[in-house]
Amino acid sequence: MRSLLSNWPLWLGSLAHAAAEQNDAPTVSQSTITGVAGPIGQNATPLPNITNPYVKPAKPNGLDTEQPNMILFMPDQLRYDAVGAFGSQVAKTPNIDAFAAEAYLSPRGDFYAENATELGVNEYGFLTELTLPDFTRESFKGDQNDIWNRLFYLGKRNETEAIDYDAAMIRGMVSRVDHQFGLIVNKTKDLGLWNKTVTFFFTDHGEFLGDYELIEKWPSGVSDNLVHEPLIVGGGGLPRGVVFEEMAEMTDLVPTMLQLGTVNETYAHYGLSLVNAIHAAGRGEIIHHRNFSFTEGGFLLSDEPVLEQSPFPYDIKAALQHNDTALVGQALAVRNREWTYVYRLYEEDELYSRLNDAHELHNLAAEPEYQRICDEFRQEALRFLFSTPATMTWYADERKPDVDLSSPYEQYIERCKGNCEFNDSWPTVLDAKEEL
Known about the structure:
Radius of gyration: 28 Å
Structural class: alpha+beta
CATH superfamily of the domain at 69-129 and 159-390: Alkaline Phosphatase, subunit A
Largest sheet: 5 strands, mixed
Helix content: 25-40%
Number of strands: 13
Strand order of the largest sheet: 3-5-6-4-7
Low-confidence stretches: 1-44, 112-143, 427-436
Distance between the termini: 49 Å
Shape: globular
Strand content: 5-15%
CATH class of the domain at 69-129 and 159-390: Alpha Beta
CATH topology of the domain at 69-129 and 159-390: Alkaline Phosphatase, subunit A
Number of helices: 11
Order of helices and strands: HHEEEHEHHEHEEHHEHEEEHHEE
CATH architecture of the domain at 69-129 and 159-390: 3-Layer(aba) Sandwich
Mean pLDDT: 78
């Protein structure tokens, strides 16, 4: 910036001289102003070719087929330990297990995408159309004395029955997913396409499933049962029966697919292709992939006005996020093969041994003998935040997403029901703050 500013007098003087010449002469040749980009005018040399700085030429995939077909099989909310191939003793997943036996298996897939909060995934990640009519209570006028308006919290159910029922239901759903996956694999083989098709099996996140007396997920949840996901890649001539013990992230999937498809990379990302590591593992070699995996989630306290609002049965869960937003405060988890470190913006740090405390029940962050480890992981968290910023796009994306979603402002006005005032940037409720 300093050198550019020092050239301003030269730029202005040259421009004034060129303007005077233009007034005096009837026929004017273009001026030859010299600036930071070189001479400008008739005799100007062309600017150097400016190419997209994010472009990386396609890499060889190591397969017989240059551009194989790809199948992405991605069930929702599937725990790592819900599949027999990843150690479950009760799962009935014969098709997934058979696929894993002849494919590449990643036991270290801490696979929750960076910043994949529920809001982030809904708006920027995996958007799907509704597959059933949106039949809700608001769709039609029902019995005015219906049960919905008279539900209440009775208290704790029998823990054994509740957890057993939930677990049995989930496992039954997993077996159904396994059956459907088997149909796809068998059809691909029947069509003679298996050796020309790379199949991915992975998921978006896990499930508490009774751990910590919780079910489903949580926006700032970064525990192992939510973020440690199954990843299996096979077919298309990839090595068979390979177990890859290095760390991996969901961000690695896109560059992996691009390399398998021999497609140029044309935009910035922070993923690392797994293709070369898979081939090396097939030869009995190890290519180091990652030292750490990172997971982000949660919100700022100032995000409270636009957090989700949900009817039964999620009304209590959603209300808790508004009543105490710190419970869904921003969190960053850093993992390697031995440790899990969690930095929470509004709560205490966490440190768990992955070798001795797989369920993350004993927080060691406050113990003096583990301060050195916490310090090292804080440094890694800081390095991650500085080295993975948002990037500028090189070309304008002319695609227009069709998103049927009210703006945060409109959503907040709807919550206020016309009873808002505006102070600085955010509206506030006048007389019904308890409704928030």
